[in-house]
Amino acid sequence: MASRLAEIRRYLGVADGGLDSLIESCQAELDTLARPRSLSRVVLPAEHGDLCQGQDIARHLEGAVLWVLMAATLGEEVDRRIDRYQVSDLTRGLVLNACATASIEALCQRLEEDVREAGVAKNLFLGPRYSPGYGDYPLAVQPRLLQTLEAGRRLGLMCTKSFFLTPKKSVTALAPLNRTPTPTPASCDGCSQNHNCPYRGRR
After folding, report:
1. Prediction pTM value
2. How many Cβ atoms from other residues are within 10 Å of residue 105's Cβ?
Protein backbone atom coordinates (compact mmCIF):
# COMPACT_ATOMS: atom_id res chain seq x y z
CA MET A 1 0.00 0.00 0.00
CA ALA A 2 2.96 2.33 0.60
CA SER A 3 3.78 2.76 -3.09
CA ARG A 4 0.08 3.10 -3.97
CA LEU A 5 -0.31 5.72 -1.23
CA ALA A 6 2.57 7.75 -2.65
CA GLU A 7 1.06 7.54 -6.13
CA ILE A 8 -2.34 8.69 -4.92
CA ARG A 9 -0.73 11.61 -3.10
CA ARG A 10 0.97 12.52 -6.37
CA TYR A 11 -2.33 12.50 -8.25
CA LEU A 12 -3.80 14.74 -5.54
CA GLY A 13 -0.78 17.05 -5.59
CA VAL A 14 -0.04 16.67 -1.88
CA ALA A 15 3.40 15.92 -0.46
CA ASP A 16 2.65 15.11 3.19
CA GLY A 17 0.48 12.52 4.89
CA GLY A 18 -2.35 14.82 5.94
CA LEU A 19 -4.88 12.97 3.79
CA ASP A 20 -3.60 9.45 4.38
CA SER A 21 -6.46 8.37 6.61
CA LEU A 22 -9.02 9.56 4.06
CA ILE A 23 -7.04 7.94 1.24
CA GLU A 24 -7.04 4.59 3.04
CA SER A 25 -10.78 4.86 3.68
CA CYS A 26 -11.47 5.71 0.03
CA GLN A 27 -9.24 2.89 -1.18
CA ALA A 28 -11.16 0.42 1.00
CA GLU A 29 -14.43 1.76 -0.44
CA LEU A 30 -13.08 1.50 -3.96
CA ASP A 31 -12.11 -2.13 -3.40
CA THR A 32 -15.77 -2.94 -2.73
CA LEU A 33 -16.99 -1.02 -5.81
CA ALA A 34 -14.51 -1.83 -8.54
CA ARG A 35 -15.00 -4.67 -10.98
CA PRO A 36 -11.59 -4.63 -12.67
CA ARG A 37 -11.46 -6.33 -16.05
CA SER A 38 -9.01 -6.15 -18.90
CA LEU A 39 -8.18 -7.73 -22.23
CA SER A 40 -5.61 -7.58 -24.99
CA ARG A 41 -5.30 -8.63 -28.61
CA VAL A 42 -2.21 -9.05 -30.76
CA VAL A 43 -2.67 -7.92 -34.37
CA LEU A 44 -0.65 -7.62 -37.55
CA PRO A 45 0.15 -3.98 -38.40
CA ALA A 46 -0.63 -4.53 -42.08
CA GLU A 47 -4.19 -5.56 -41.23
CA HIS A 48 -4.97 -2.69 -38.84
CA GLY A 49 -3.24 0.34 -40.31
CA ASP A 50 -6.33 2.49 -39.66
CA LEU A 51 -5.47 2.39 -35.95
CA CYS A 52 -2.23 4.26 -36.60
CA GLN A 53 -3.40 7.87 -37.01
CA GLY A 54 -0.97 10.71 -36.40
CA GLN A 55 2.79 11.20 -36.46
CA ASP A 56 3.39 10.46 -32.78
CA ILE A 57 1.81 7.00 -32.77
CA ALA A 58 3.46 6.23 -36.11
CA ARG A 59 6.87 6.95 -34.59
CA HIS A 60 5.97 4.97 -31.48
CA LEU A 61 5.00 1.88 -33.47
CA GLU A 62 7.69 2.19 -36.14
CA GLY A 63 9.40 -1.13 -36.85
CA ALA A 64 7.09 -3.18 -34.65
CA VAL A 65 6.59 -6.81 -35.63
CA LEU A 66 3.16 -6.89 -34.03
CA TRP A 67 0.85 -4.47 -32.26
CA VAL A 68 -0.90 -5.14 -28.97
CA LEU A 69 -4.32 -3.60 -28.41
CA MET A 70 -5.31 -3.25 -24.75
CA ALA A 71 -8.34 -2.22 -22.76
CA ALA A 72 -9.03 -2.10 -19.03
CA THR A 73 -11.85 -0.80 -16.84
CA LEU A 74 -12.89 -0.58 -13.20
CA GLY A 75 -16.60 -0.74 -14.04
CA GLU A 76 -19.45 1.74 -13.97
CA GLU A 77 -20.18 1.60 -10.22
CA VAL A 78 -16.96 3.51 -9.54
CA ASP A 79 -18.17 6.34 -11.78
CA ARG A 80 -21.51 6.46 -10.01
CA ARG A 81 -19.96 6.75 -6.56
CA ILE A 82 -17.49 9.45 -7.61
CA ASP A 83 -20.30 11.43 -9.24
CA ARG A 84 -22.38 11.14 -6.07
CA TYR A 85 -19.55 12.49 -3.93
CA GLN A 86 -19.00 15.38 -6.31
CA VAL A 87 -22.37 16.63 -5.03
CA SER A 88 -22.42 15.45 -1.42
CA ASP A 89 -18.74 15.36 -0.32
CA LEU A 90 -16.37 17.03 -2.76
CA THR A 91 -13.17 16.20 -0.86
CA ARG A 92 -14.00 12.52 -0.62
CA GLY A 93 -14.97 12.55 -4.28
CA LEU A 94 -11.58 13.98 -5.26
CA VAL A 95 -9.72 11.42 -3.15
CA LEU A 96 -11.81 8.51 -4.42
CA ASN A 97 -11.16 9.71 -7.96
CA ALA A 98 -7.41 9.71 -7.32
CA CYS A 99 -7.60 6.22 -5.81
CA ALA A 100 -9.48 5.02 -8.89
CA THR A 101 -6.90 6.60 -11.20
CA ALA A 102 -4.11 4.78 -9.37
CA SER A 103 -6.09 1.54 -9.50
CA ILE A 104 -6.75 1.65 -13.25
CA GLU A 105 -3.06 2.37 -13.81
CA ALA A 106 -2.13 -0.65 -11.67
CA LEU A 107 -4.57 -2.79 -13.64
CA CYS A 108 -2.97 -1.65 -16.91
CA GLN A 109 0.47 -2.45 -15.55
CA ARG A 110 -0.62 -5.99 -14.66
CA LEU A 111 -2.06 -6.41 -18.15
CA GLU A 112 1.20 -5.16 -19.66
CA GLU A 113 3.18 -7.62 -17.57
CA ASP A 114 1.07 -10.52 -18.83
CA VAL A 115 1.58 -9.38 -22.43
CA ARG A 116 5.30 -8.84 -21.80
CA GLU A 117 5.76 -12.37 -20.50
CA ALA A 118 3.90 -13.83 -23.48
CA GLY A 119 6.07 -11.77 -25.85
CA VAL A 120 9.32 -12.88 -24.24
CA ALA A 121 8.32 -16.49 -24.87
CA LYS A 122 8.34 -15.58 -28.58
CA ASN A 123 11.54 -13.51 -28.36
CA LEU A 124 9.58 -10.28 -28.72
CA PHE A 125 9.74 -7.24 -26.44
CA LEU A 126 6.82 -5.07 -25.42
CA GLY A 127 7.20 -1.32 -25.82
CA PRO A 128 5.32 1.30 -23.76
CA ARG A 129 1.59 1.60 -24.30
CA TYR A 130 0.20 4.66 -26.06
CA SER A 131 -3.41 5.80 -25.65
CA PRO A 132 -5.73 7.91 -27.81
CA GLY A 133 -5.44 11.51 -26.66
CA TYR A 134 -1.64 11.33 -26.19
CA GLY A 135 0.26 13.67 -28.48
CA ASP A 136 -1.53 13.93 -31.81
CA TYR A 137 -3.11 10.47 -31.54
CA PRO A 138 -6.80 11.38 -31.92
CA LEU A 139 -9.57 10.32 -29.59
CA ALA A 140 -11.60 9.64 -32.73
CA VAL A 141 -9.80 6.30 -33.08
CA GLN A 142 -11.58 5.00 -29.95
CA PRO A 143 -14.57 3.39 -31.72
CA ARG A 144 -12.30 1.40 -34.00
CA LEU A 145 -10.10 0.30 -31.10
CA LEU A 146 -13.10 -0.81 -29.08
CA GLN A 147 -14.60 -2.61 -32.06
CA THR A 148 -11.38 -4.49 -32.81
CA LEU A 149 -11.13 -5.59 -29.18
CA GLU A 150 -14.86 -6.36 -28.94
CA ALA A 151 -14.59 -4.34 -25.73
CA GLY A 152 -18.29 -3.50 -25.61
CA ARG A 153 -19.34 -7.13 -25.47
CA ARG A 154 -16.43 -8.38 -23.39
CA LEU A 155 -15.94 -5.51 -20.93
CA GLY A 156 -19.02 -3.31 -21.25
CA LEU A 157 -16.62 -0.59 -22.42
CA MET A 158 -17.90 2.00 -24.90
CA CYS A 159 -17.32 5.61 -25.86
CA THR A 160 -19.46 8.71 -26.11
CA LYS A 161 -20.11 10.76 -29.25
CA SER A 162 -17.13 12.87 -28.16
CA PHE A 163 -15.00 9.68 -28.02
CA PHE A 164 -14.55 9.65 -24.24
CA LEU A 165 -14.60 6.22 -22.65
CA THR A 166 -17.45 5.02 -20.51
CA PRO A 167 -17.05 3.86 -17.78
CA LYS A 168 -14.70 6.81 -17.21
CA LYS A 169 -12.11 4.87 -15.19
CA SER A 170 -11.04 2.92 -18.25
CA VAL A 171 -8.06 2.87 -20.59
CA THR A 172 -7.45 1.79 -24.16
CA ALA A 173 -4.01 1.69 -25.70
CA LEU A 174 -1.70 0.32 -28.37
CA ALA A 175 1.80 -0.98 -27.77
CA PRO A 176 4.46 -2.37 -30.09
CA LEU A 177 6.02 -5.81 -29.91
CA ASN A 178 9.58 -5.40 -31.16
CA ARG A 179 12.49 -7.72 -31.89
CA THR A 180 14.71 -5.67 -29.58
CA PRO A 181 13.95 -3.97 -26.23
CA THR A 182 12.63 -0.41 -26.40
CA PRO A 183 14.75 2.06 -24.38
CA THR A 184 12.81 3.63 -21.50
CA PRO A 185 13.16 7.43 -21.18
CA ALA A 186 15.45 8.20 -18.25
CA SER A 187 13.66 11.42 -17.36
CA CYS A 188 10.63 13.56 -18.15
CA ASP A 189 12.63 15.19 -20.94
CA GLY A 190 12.40 11.97 -22.94
CA CYS A 191 8.61 11.89 -22.86
CA SER A 192 6.51 13.40 -25.66
CA GLN A 193 4.03 14.63 -23.03
CA ASN A 194 6.56 16.58 -20.95
CA HIS A 195 5.14 19.93 -22.08
CA ASN A 196 1.66 19.37 -20.63
CA CYS A 197 2.00 16.68 -17.95
CA PRO A 198 0.43 17.74 -14.62
CA TYR A 199 2.76 15.38 -12.71
CA ARG A 200 6.07 16.69 -14.07
CA GLY A 201 8.36 17.66 -11.21
CA ARG A 202 6.32 15.89 -8.52
CA ARG A 203 8.50 12.78 -8.30
Report:
1. 0.87
2. 15
